[in-house]
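User: I'm writing a short methods note and want a consistent example. For UrcA family protein, I'll paste the sequence; you return only the structure tokens, no commentary, since I'll be parsing the reply automatically.
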Amino acid sequence: MKTLIAIAALPVLAMTAPQAAFAGEASTARVAIHDLDLTSEAGQAEMEKRVRKAAYAVCKYEDDGQLREANAHFSCVRTALKKSEGQMATLVANARFGG
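Assistant:
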């Protein structure tokens, strides 16, 4: 199972979740964060909330449109969230230090 997460372009966080059928393909969710103040705890918390919601949505279905089994769904969500941590940290650092 392969999960990749990449920032497409600021201020959008792109999240990619694994696909069962095709190893080279993945579902992607874009998380809008342009309206958030990432220098504040409230802005960071909202970004994390949006990323978590996107992870649950992206990981919900298999390639063929069938619901994932619960264990596979939560594993996918955990992986997507873990992979997004670095992106979120970079976004916060850039907001704080003008990167």
